[in-house]
Amino acid sequence: MGLTAEGYARAAGVNNFLIRPIFTFALWLFVGSIKIPAQVDVPLLEDTSKFPVMVFSHGAVSSRTDYTHYLGELASRGHVIAALEHRDGSCPGTMVQIKGEKDRPVFLLKQKDLVSDPPMNDTILKKEQLAVRTEEIMQAIRVLQDINSGKGSEIFTSSSRREGKTLDAWSNRLDFNHLTINGHSYGATGALQALKTANTTSTNPAIGGIALDPGKSSGQLNTEIPVPLLVVHSNSWSKTHSIFFGRPHFDTVADLVRGVRDKVGAAWFLTSVGTAHPSVTDAPLLQPLLLNFATGATADVRKALGEYVKVTLDFLGYTKTSKKDGVLDEAVTHEEYGKWVSEEREKSFPKEYAKYWEVHVSPLNQK
């Protein structure tokens, strides 16, 4: 907990011996008693069925454990989720453990922390971090492929964390015909970057991608995506007007998704009504009143997270069956945020969807 607290102090620009204990105490006060309902190295049920796989990339100043409810809901429905903890300097604090070596913490990095010639700037830093994130995603896929090919014991033996004693049981149980890459915020930008080679090589067999609130300050968004794509904005992400490389961020994302739709035939861009940027994380569940006050979110926390899970499952189902379900089977309702395309569409859009969603790009509207 102290590792993460120091990372938050660095992010706030107040990292010193007086402030760090205060951050650690505050973090303990908010989440110290929280336990995740999961166990490590539980035996796999004897079966022959295969499980679809998702690699998930966290946002900036976040970690792999900040999305346990969202990812746990997906896992409980039969999906293997590999939630990464990036060592690119965007995580508050993470510990690198190598056998035979002293544990090494990696904290949140800023430009001033790096020696560079020419001097480091934000553009270079983001480019380098995204390159690291992309390689980490690819490496995660390689390790999962090794587990699936029967190398679970070797991976367990080489693990510095002494976890994975049941990995042998996962031989031939991972369905790489249904691999997707998902990410939130900076992680969404990284996921889009990793999708550039999706389904084109054996090292990246991804057949779809999900981007939740793709970054507004995390570098250019990759537009070359050869597989179906779902982009979901929180309400605050769509509502807040942000200039992104010379044009509105919302318009950039909409054009990106239209380009994928026109090339691949399947891409969606939605806004989750009443939500804020942290709504897909665990934070609103832990401190709903505080987060709603701070972010302006109005949606019920659990229902909003439930909708994120539902639309994700609908997309994952589409990648398997090509059948559109739920809000993914709806035509465009709002080409612009907050503005209905017509009174007729407002009347025809099912109320159970209108309460939670705006549809900006859909394969049901080829325009």
UniProtKB/TrEMBL annotation:
InterPro entries: AB_hydrolase_fold, PAF_acetylhydro_eukaryote. The active site is at 185 (nucleophile), 213 (charge relay system), 277 (charge relay system). Pfam families: PAF-AH_p_II. It is an enzyme of class 3 (hydrolase). Its EC number is 3.1.1.47. Signal peptide: none annotated. It catalyses: a 1-O-alkyl-2-acetyl-sn-glycero-3-phosphocholine + H2O = a 1-O-alkyl-sn-glycero-3-phosphocholine + acetate + H(+). Keywords: Hydrolase, Lipid degradation, Lipid metabolism. GO terms for molecular function: 1-alkyl-2-acetylglycerophosphocholine esterase activity. GO terms for biological process: lipid catabolic process. Belongs to the serine esterase family. PANTHER family: PHOSPHOLIPASE-RELATED, PLATELET-ACTIVATING FACTOR ACETYLHYDROLASE. This is Putative phospholipase. It comes from Fusarium irregulare.
